Amino acid sequence: MSSARHPVADPSWRTASALLEQHRRETPDKPAIVDVDRETSMTFEQLAQAVDTIARQLLRHGLTKGERVVLADCDAPDKLLLWLGAWRIGAIVCPLDIPFVGSETVRKLLGTVQPKLIVLSAEASVRAALHAHAPVVRFASWTAPAHRVTANAAADLISVDADTRDALRDTPPLPDAATISDIGDIASMCCTSGTTGIPKIIVYDHACYWLNGLDSIDLLGLTREDRMLEYRSFDWYSAQILSFIPFLQLGSTLCVARRFSRSRFSDWIQAQRVTVCAGVPTVLNMLIEAPLDVPADTFASLRAMTCSTAPLSPVQWRRFEKLYGIRILNLYGSSEAGWMCGNRLQRRRIGTVGYPAAHVVFDIVDSEGVPCGPDAEGQVVVDGAKLALGVLQRAGTLLPIRGKPLFTRDIAARDTDGFVRMAARMDDLVIRGGVKIAPQEIEDVLRAHPQVQDVAALGVPDPLYGQETVCFVVAQPGTAPDRQALRAHCRTHLPREKMPKEVYVVAALPRSARGKVLRDALRQQWWQIVNSRPDLSEPECE
Q1: pTM here?
Q2: Widest CA span of the chain, in angstroms?
Q3: Is 351 left (phi over 0), alpha (psi -120 to 50) or beta?
Q4: pLDDT class for 155, splitting at 50, 70, 90?
């Protein structure tokens, strides 16, 4: 396997609490976390005080080093404070997005995690299912003063109020911030963003966060002076390692929104002088579909916007940059490995995910495990110290990930300059009469049609070839593309064996909360269409 590129002088690992103390000493009045929705902020001095206050209250509720706390239904700014408060005492953070995973799945997940404590927003509705697994306490948001309630040692409410701090002054001192955790201690347990079945619970140690944070700093060229905008949930590992951890490592400013808002996006960038913004293909497509009517200098402070979580079409990449003048850095990562590849500001290539990150051993291999040559497609395999520890099993045991090469099931190729082009997931490959077809190749062709806004290709059963490809297309607003015309467009750009058998125009593609196309849902939709139109099930010869 190819060797990882380790920077010459990586900074030595330090606990998040020790880093926060450093920033408190060096830049006490600098904005640390900005709530862009409510237009309020917290300095590093205020953040350090709030984290210590939360940590003492968590101790009062029985949480100690090495025990697990579930953070559920908390707004993004609050979740960051609670997360730091838990790490301040060496606890293990288990973020849980109940609406995303569903109430029934939550019961199973909690049964596996076995938390010592569950923290909910003070405004969250009570869920009896949560109480069955651990005591539940509530957190009064620091950004909504009207909801603050004075807490005391016996209350089931956690707060950062001055009255709360006064009530806790006589409690025993907190553990040493510099030594409360070791780099090999478990730091978190997070749910994956899978599109089917019960999400896996991935277990990370502090090494995962530290090394992935360093990679984010390298990929984006981040410094202490940066102001990052993050609007994704911090239940996502991607948001944690792209925004949260570099903010702690550098002492930069983290601007947080609860969710993306097209109407407020430009105001956020201008008002907060954002320099780097997180992104996903769904957001880029949204901004392309309904372009913002803003002055040319609106995004002057923004040097780059990332794109990850789902594949980014080169067509949409070019459209977005031409429309807004914002440079896109396409990144590639996973819940199990963190960042694997990324484009950099000074070295990037449209249509690729850049080249391997610094702290990962990266290779592309064939079916025999032999490294592929330039431009040859194979499976991505990674290894290294920043891979997740493993997957938590129902019995409480750990199915290891780190310690051996991780075969990602992602198909990719690397050119002679080292840039990596993603082709498909192995599970999504269509095998038509022995020919392997990557859905993205067909999707990119259809996206180039002026009447197509979004598209998904998938394989369906076929009695003659084993599988055929069908496409679901979302039309550009105000257009009504003809299905046969779209197939004719494909015919001019694709070889015969890669031609989609059918193209369906739909109002929208089913996507997960994290922007991934739900191909199983599309496949069910195809079955319904075929059953209602038997003629479409016959193989087509050309």
Answers
A1: 0.84
A2: 83
A3: left
A4: low
